[in-house]
Amino acid sequence: MQSPAHRRPTMTQVAERAGVSVMTVSYTYNRADRVSIESRNKVLHAAAELGYVGPDPAARSLRYGSTRTLGVILGEHLTYAFDNPQAVAFLAGIAEVCADRGYGMLIVPTAGTADDSVRVGQAAVDAFVIWTMTDDDPVLDAVSASGRPAVIHGGPARGGLQLVSIDNRAAAFAMGMKTFAGARRPAILSFPLDSARQTVIASGVDPETVQFPVTRDRLLGYRDAIIALGLEWSDVVVAATATNDEREAESLAEQLLSVDHPVDAIAAMSDEQAVGVLTAAATMGVSIPRALAVSGWDDSRAAAANRLSSVAQDLRAQGASAARLALGAQDEAAPVEWSVVLRSTTS
């Protein structure tokens, strides 16, 4: 309990000190165009004397039934929002919409614990945008139970929640047809296969067992390309990283290139992973693309700088679309555009 001396000054007290009505104080903070300059100055001067900083956000939320805040749920460590280029681009799109509409943005990280659902349920937000999660993540149930609008990026598709995503399977097929053309020992550098996020190197991984929808769809697309090219999926090595980290990708690529019969094509699920592959190849003296074809995903600045073939998609536009849908846009068409950009790392 706050002592009387430390209670928050009220709008009524400001009005009394300024000699104006409570409505004038309210308009000063919420509808400034309806207040004369003289009255506004009186209110602000009185507010400064009393230490009044504006309407109580909690009280405003109760009054209007809105927090004017959009929640973004990341199934990652909080630093992921600032370290991962894909997340940065996606969040920038959300932030742009929030800024235009006068909304705040609250990042809600999850850690795979029982507290996640509680944290989501108690988040003071009007709606959610969800970064891709596993099919069975209980956070999705918590979001549905909250009754607030929500949009999922990448998947999984969930009844009652909207989805923003490109066709990852089709894009992976198109990229795979270019990356694996002429290859005899192709490999895939993958995102994590499940919530355990363990580093895995295995042949013939069944895509249907993968818990992350984006990873699953991309593996399905690469498998479609392998089959179309007359190769055996059971022979294809899938190296899954624990994180989207260039150094980890470099280490895995070194292993794939150090065996008696090294791989001759690697399709990576991010440009960061692909750059790690290029670094490993350069260190080991492997010629690109003559001895090793390499492709990435997202067509980032790193892809252009390294002349890397990559799948192009606009994550910033997807973030903006997800935010508009979450905040009630009825005619918002989710962006589905993607393209294959071929450069010198593939034949």
Strand and helix layout:
Elements: H1 11-18, H2 22-30, H3 37-50, H4 57-64, E1 69-74, H5 80-83, H6 85-101, E2 104-109, H7 115-122, E3 127-130, H8 138-146, E4 150-153, E5 162-164, H9 168-179, E6 186-190, E7 200-203, H10 213-228, E8 237-240, H11 246-258, E9 265-268, H12 271-284, E10 293-298, H13 301-305, E11 309-312, H14 315-326, E12 339-341
Parallel strand pairs: 1-2, 1-3, 3-4, 4-5, 6-8, 6-9, 9-10, 10-11
Antiparallel strand pairs: 7-8, 11-12
Helix pairs in contact: 1-2, 1-3, 6-14, 7-8, 9-10, 11-12
Summarize the entry for a quick read.
The chain has 347 residues and is α/β, with parallel strands linked by helices. It has helices at residues 11-18, 22-30, 37-50, 57-64, 80-83, 85-101, 115-122, 138-146, 168-179, 213-228, 246-258, 271-284, 301-305, 315-326, and strands at residues 69-74, 104-109, 127-130, 150-153, 162-164, 186-190, 200-203, 237-240, 265-268, 293-298, 309-312, 339-341.
Q: Within the largest sheet, what's the order of strands?
A: 7-8-6-9-10-11-12
**Beta-strand percent range:** 15-25%
* CATH fold-level topology of the largest domain: Rossmann fold
Q: Show unreliable segments.
A: 1-6
Listing every helix as H and every strand as E from the N terminus to the C terminus, the arrangement reads HHHHEHHEHEHEEHEEHEHEHEHEHE
Query: What is the makeup of the main sheet?
Result: 7 strands, mixed
CATH superfamily of the largest domain: Response regulator
Overview of the molecule:
The protein has 347 residues and is of the alpha/beta class. The chain is elongated, with a radius of gyration of 26 Å. The protein has 3 domains: 4-55, lambda repressor-like DNA-binding domains (434 Repressor (Amino-terminal Domain)); 69-164, Response regulator (Rossmann fold); 168-312, Response regulator (Rossmann fold), CATH 3.40.50.2300. The protein is 43% helix and 15% strand. β3 (127-130), α8 and β4 (150-153) form a beta-alpha-beta unit. It starts with 10 loop residues before the first helix and ends in a 6-residue tail after the last strand. The model is unreliable at 1-6 (pLDDT under 50). The longest helix is centred in the N-terminal third of the chain and has 17 residues, at 85-101. It has helices at 11-18, 22-30, 37-50, 57-64, 80-83, 85-101, 115-122, 138-146, 168-179, 213-228, 246-258, 271-284, 301-305, 315-326, and strands at residues 69-74, 104-109, 127-130, 150-153, 162-164, 186-190, 200-203, 237-240, 265-268, 293-298, 309-312, 339-341. α11 packs across α12.
